[in-house]
Design brief:
Length: 442
């Protein structure tokens, strides 16, 4: 989903705030006199309250005044012209899918919740990073119209939002329906900070994360060649205080270590084939030495560790990018670093150039997301007996966006006259991840 022409027909996404030259001038404050891990650099570059990319204002999150009437558009060309006009008129860098396809995108999520929710207890929904509040309003509208009255009347919808300005926008959006107001609240805090959650909640609940994983801080590890040990990457300011460089240190950080172990990157076997493979790698690394770089979703790991601790009976719906085009940075799961100024977008080839004036967003490895989810639920163990016959604590499934919408949504509502349907045809690089608790633990 991008605001400029790409190789693939993606819909515009992420450029959450555009920094002015003056704001960018002060951006070197995101790193102090001491080196920081890459995840801390990224967190500051995006979320620093004064110098971070999308902590400054809410205007970059697009809000459509009216829902798009897809049935009145002739086809793909007409739809793309419509989008182009919207972007030109608003100078907005991105519209979320839930905004472009309102109310139908949120209605599909609400339908997925209603099909599996336990209505013997009051429905409670948490949304992490609620944007403009369009998802919250759409879900509450759907439940108000389609669920039994007692479900709507007793429900609670809590948005956990790190941006004060966005929190206010969400209150205004949801508040358009007066009956929603007492059921909705915004908690302005970092969802990955355990201290903000209070006591453990034992009741079933739902957690929604739409385009959240792509902006969570990641770490970076580096190896000189194919057989060298992985090292942590740190960022430090150079003597001119205007530029940064990387430092490489032996792996010691606990989050990085756990993430590497979850991926089984350091898995060793003593089999003959493994020994042969190691020998070949050793020879190859000497003939063609090639540095290795790997990006780790440590922010995702930290967030899911907290969520599983405080909401042990949560059901999770997450949607994000499984692939990003035109990524210039090296390394597995490397991010796209992009900024938009004067109506045109620019991609960087170095994440350290993102000093508060560029978005940094990552593709989601859904296979790894599932492993992290199982690990945080307490089922996947890093050490000890891997032959345990205990069942998984989560039932999980990853669906293409088109499959999710066909199952839970109303695709006819987003179809143009000639049959083109952007919600089904254009989102080839996005997926939904669903995870619910199970009692099969014996």
């Amino acid at each position: 989903m991008f605001s400029r022409t790409r190789t693939f027909p993606f819909i515009p996404i992420a450029s959450k705030v555009c920094a002015s030259p003056l704001e960018a001038f002060y951006s070197t404050h995101i790193v102090g006199d001491k080196p920081v891990l890459v995840r801390d650099f990224i967190h500051s570059a995006l979320y620093h309250p004064l110098h971070g990319y999308f902590s400054r204002r809410s205007g970059s999150v697009g809000v459509l005044p009216n829902a798009i009437k897809f049935n009145q558009l002739q086809g793909r060309k007409a739809y793309m012209r419509y989008l182009d006009n919207i972007y030109r008129q608003s100078d907005i860098s991105w519209f979320t899918p839930v905004e472009l396809f309102k109310p139908w995108y949120a209605h599909a999520i609400a339908e997925a919740i209603m099909r599996t929710a336990n209505f013997s207890v009051p429905l409670k929904i948490y949304e992490i990073g609620g944007g403009s509040g369009t998802c919250a309003k759409g879900i509450m509208d759907y439940i108000m119209l389609n669920a039994p009255a007692k479900v709507y009347n007793s429900m609670t919808y809590i948005s956990v939002e790190i941006s004060p300005s966005l929190a206010e926008v969400q209150r205004e959006t949801v508040g358009e329906v007066r009956s929603h107001i007492p059921k909705f609240r915004v908690e302005c805090r970092d969802a990955s900070d355990r201290s903000g959650w209070g006591n453990v909640e034992q009741q079933p609940c739902w957690v929604i994360m739409l385009e959240v994983l792509d902006n969570l801080p990641h770490d970076l590890i580096y190896a000189e060649n194919q057989i060298s040990s992985w090292m942590e990457v740190w960022v430090e300011r150079q003597h001119d205080h205007e530029t940064f460089n990387e430092l490489y240190k032996p792996m010691q950080d606990s989050l990085i270590t756990r993430c590497v172990e979850i991926m089984d990157m350091d898995k060793t076997n003593t089999t003959h084939s493994s020994a042969v493979s190691t020998t070949l790698k050793s020879v190859w690394s000497k003939v063609y030495p090639k540095p290795r770089r790997c990006w780790l979703p440590t922010g995702c790991l930290k967030l899911l560790e907290v969520l599983h601790e405080v909401l042990p009976k949560m059901s999770l719906i997450a949607s994000d990018f499984s692939y990003l085009p035109d990524v210039k940075l090296p390394g597995e799961r490397a991010p796209l670093v992009s900024t938009k100024k004067d109506g045109s977008s620019t991609d960087y080839d170095n994440y350290m150039e993102a000093k508060g004036d560029a978005d940094i967003f990552f593709p989601t490895d859904f296979w790894l997301l599932e492993r992290i989810d199982h690990y945080c639920s307490g089922w996947l163990k890093l050490h000890g007996d891997h032959t345990s016959k205990k069942g998984k604590k989560r039932r999980t499934i990853t669906l293409e966006t088109s499959s999710f919408m066909e199952e839970f949504g109303l695709p006819t509502k987003t179809r143009t006259k000639d049959g083109y349907n952007p919600i089904l045809d254009d989102f080839k690089n996005t997926k939904f991840y669903l995870s619910v608790p199970t009692h099969n633990t014996k």
